[in-house]
Write a structure and sequence with these properties.
Blueprint (H helix, E strand, L loop, with lengths): L5 H12 L19 E5 L7 H10 L3 E2 L9 E4 L5 H9 L2 E3 L1 H9 L3
Parallel strand pairs: 1-2, 1-3, 3-4
Length: about 110
């Protein structure tokens, strides 16, 4: 495994000696999107993909790369393609950017 490899351990030691402090990513518990899976497709005009991901994760949700039965919402921007078609075929809720923002701003 990664931590059994001597070279990897050496790099980690060097990083720690240089002042790097490893931390684990903390996942927000709770929030309006708690436990919900989102997929973004097409070109988003109001924010970047990274900004959209942060908005979802800050509210306890997950952003995944592909549409499945476990997907709760697909947010479709301009020129959305196969992910949008798959979402519709599976009956997954499809939101435009305005609807996504309205969900974020809705009273909890």
């Amino acid at each position: 495994t990664f931590f059994e490899n001597g070279e990897n351990l050496s790099v980690i030691r060097q990083m720690i000696d240089s002042g790097v402090t490893p931390t684990s990513a903390s996942k927000k518990v709770g929030g309006i999107f708690s436990g919900k899976n989102f997929v973004f497709t097409g070109t988003l005009s109001r924010f970047s993909r990274d900004e959209a991901r942060k908005l979802v994760e800050d509210q306890g949700g997950n952003v995944v790369g592909s549409v499945s039965k476990k997907t709760d919402y697909v947010v479709a921007g301009d020129e959305a393609g196969s992910k949008l078609a798959k979402a519709r075929g599976l009956g997954v809720a499809v939101l435009g950017e305005d609807e996504f923002l309205a969900l974020l701003e809705a009273p909890q």
